[in-house]
Design a protein that fits this description.
- It is built from seven helices and eleven strands.
- The protein is an alpha+beta fold.
- It has two domains: 67 residues; 198 residues, 3-Layer(bba) Sandwich (Chalcone isomerase).
Length: 276
Amino acid sequence: MRYKKKIRKNCIISSFQSHAHAYRIDCIRTYIMFASATALSSSRFSTSTLGSSFSPSLRRARRHHQQNGRKGCVKTKAAVEPATKISFDDTSNSLTLLGTGVREKKIAILNVKVYAVAMYADKSKLTSDLLNGDFEKEILIQLNMKVEASDFFKALEEALIPRISRIATDMATKEDDEGNFMTTTAEVSEECEDLALKEMELIRNGLSGAKKLEKGTKVRFTFKELGGDVAMVMESSGVETTFKSYELAKALLDVYVGDDPISVEAKKAFEAGAAR
C-alpha cells in the first residue's frame, strides 16, 4: 500500500515538473517572439537579413510597421552635384531634372566653387535645342559660399550684357528672303536691347533685399514657353520678380547652354539629360 502511494506521488511530481518545463518553454518562446517583434519595430533589420525563417505572423507585423509606422514620410529622390555635394530634387514644379554642374571662379591661384547649378525642363515637349526650344525650362542656382548680393549681380551682369548686345546685333543685321537689310528690324532690335537692359534692374532689385547671400541660398529662373514671362525667385527671401524681355531670357539661358557657357561640364550634363 505504501509502495503504491509512493509511485502515485512520484507520478504527480513528474507530471508537475513536465508541465513546469513546458510552461518555461512557452515563456521563453513568447519572450523570443516579443524581442524579435521589438527589433522589427526599430527597423534595424532589412528583409534580406530577416530571411524566410521568421514566422508569417512576424513578417506580417513587419509589413504593418512599414505601411503604418512610416506614414507621412515621403522620400524625395535627389541628384548630388559631385564637386559641391549639393543635392537637387529630381523634379521641380512638374519639370524634370536634366543635370547638374558647378560654377567655378578663379581667385588668385584657386578655383573657388561659387555655386552649383541645375537645369529642369518639361520632358513632354523637350527637344535637343535647350537654348531655343519652345518648352518650359528652369535654371536653379544654389550658393556654395556666402557672397555679397552686389557681387553676385555684378558677375551676372558681366555675363549678360555682352550676350544681350550680341542677340540684338544678330536681330538688327537680319536680312529678308532676298538678302536685303531690314530697317524696321534694326529699329525693333534697338528697342528690345533697351528693354532687356532695363529689366536687368529688376533682377538687381530682386537681389537687393539682402546685402549678403548666405551659403545655401537658392535663386530660381523659370522660363515659360516662347512668348511667356520669365520669373526669378530668390527662395531665401521669397522675393519673386517677373520680366517679359525675350532677349534677357535668351541671354540668361545662353550663359548656361549657349556656345560659350560659364560651365562647359554643366552644359554637357544638361545635354546628356535631354538626350536620355
